[in-house]
Write a structure and sequence with these properties.
This protein starts with a helix and ends with a helix. It contains eight helices and seven strands, in the order H-E-H-E-E-H-E-E-H-E-H-H-H-E-H. The protein has one domain. Helix 2 packs antiparallel against helix 3. A seven-stranded antiparallel sheet has the order 3-2-4-5-6-1-7. The protein is elongated, with a radius of gyration of 19 Å. By secondary structure, it is of the alpha+beta class.
Length: about 230
């Protein structure tokens, strides 16, 4: 897959990819604005935080880079800044935050906090038509474990045994208590439902041809999410 060449890869991240009908140079930024309007942005860190436009390939310096923290920019504001660069050989990347449940092992507490979110649009001539493999749009939704949990505790995969780091062993001991494990499952399910609700909103807002959810650590990320939602 071409993902490593065009996506800022970090270990164990979760992604969404979308391919659209009726997508071309004249329509792509309108489509991108429609997608950005669906983004479930954080209540704490509201608005989009930055944008970046690249031409030709990821190895080229950005043709536009803008910090938006102080502007409270919405989808229309972001896309308006990009329209001068509406070319089929460009990519458009936007950063923001959304609120997900995160388990803090240090104090053994859950928090609903602002997690990084990256949303990108790829012109059909950008990076040797990379959109064919990655999608017209891709979303980096955050760390994979926010949707799958740690150490195979959730879903159909069994808990692995063997040598572990002391911190991981302590975490597993906490989770062996039925009430803790059930809470862990419920919070993770809430994150998955938020992700899938967003997918449904995108499907309604855009002429989506197909989409997929994938990650760097799971061979079949979508099946794992379905298994966790089913409470297995």
């Amino acid at each position: 897959m071409r993902g490593p060449a065009i996506i800022k890869r970090m270990a164990n991240r979760a992604y969404l990819s979308f391919w659209c009908k009726e997508f071309g140079e004249s329509a792509m930024l309108d489509r991108f604005e429609s997608l950005l309007e669906t983004a479930p942005l954080s209540q704490v860190a509201a608005g989009f935080s930055s944008l970046l436009v690249r031409a030709v390939s990821p190895s080229e310096a950005p043709v536009l880079e803008r910090e938006l923290h102080a502007t409270a920019a919405d989808a229309a504001d972001v896309v308006a800044l990009m329209r001068e660069y509406a070319h089929a050989d460009c990519s458009y990347e936007v950063s923001a935050h959304w609120d997900l449940w995160v388990y803090d092992a240090a104090d053994d507490q859950w928090r609903l906090g602002a997690e990084p979110l990256e949303i990108a649009c790829l012109g059909e001539q950008y990076d040797e038509e990379a959109w064919r493999e990655v999608g017209h749009f891709w979303i980096c939704a955050g760390f994979e474990h926010l949707f799958t949990g740690h150490a195979g505790l959730l879903g159909a995969a069994p808990i692995e045994v063997g040598q572990r780091h002391p911190a991981e062993s302590e975490f597993l001991e906490r989770m062996r208590r039925p009430n803790r494990l059930e809470e862990y499952r419920q919070k993770t399910q809430e994150n998955i439902r938020k992700l899938m609700t967003w997918v449904e909103q995108i499907d309604r807002a855009l002429p989506v041809d197909r989409w997929r959810a994938w990650s760097e650590g799971e061979a079949n990320f979508e099946s794992r999410l379905e298994s966790i939602l089913a409470g297995k």
